[in-house]
Structures are given as structure tokens and as C-alpha cells.
Prior knowledge:
By secondary structure, the protein is α/β, with parallel strands linked by helices. It contains 4 helices and 5 strands, in the order βαββααβαβ. It has a 3-stranded parallel beta sheet with strand order 1-2-3. The model has no long low-confidence stretch (mean pLDDT 95).
Amino acid sequence: GVDVVYDGVGKTTFDKSLNCLKPRGMMVLFGQSSGAVPPMDPNILNPKGSLFLTRPSLAHYVLTRDELLWRSGEILSAVAAGTLRLRIDRTYPLAQAADAHRALEGRATTGKLLLTP
């Protein structure tokens, strides 16, 4: 098993994500691109190894302006230093924003999409 699973898909991968964790592993459910996870009984976390489950939201990690500046500063510093590399999948002119949205909705992307003026 693994220590941590980051699941941005939700409904279709939730059970598989939980099942691949080792005891005391953590599931970070940060999205629901396949739909919302149905209600679950939290007691299933114990027999699977006292698992942890969290559903984070960016808003709770940048509650104040100081926190936003601190977190964004760390990210942008890592990008500038080259220790965090961004994967740009495609660039679209702003006039083709609808095409970019269709690509996202159709799960036809594997990195960031940029809209340029």
C-alpha cells in the first residue's frame, strides 16, 4: 500500500483510492471530476487500517491575506528556482476559451491550459 493518495476524480475512484492505502494512510479527496462521492459510513476507515480522510479546500488554506502571500510566495519561489516545474499542455488565444473549456470538460488535457490575449 501507499502512505497518501491524492484523488481529484471522486466517485469512480474513491473506493480504489481507499483500498490502496496502508494502515494509517491518508486519502486527500480534492476534487470530483467524475461526480460527488456518495455518503459513506466513517466506520469503514478503521478496518482498512485506521485511515485518515480529508476533503481540503483552497479557501481554508488562504484564510488571510498574509497566509495567501506566504503560500503563493512559496509556490512561485519554487517555480522560479526550478524545483517545481509546471506542465503546460496547450496554449489557446483568449478568443478560443470555449475550446479550452471543452478540452478540460472532455478530460483531453494532461497539464495546464493557458489563455493568451
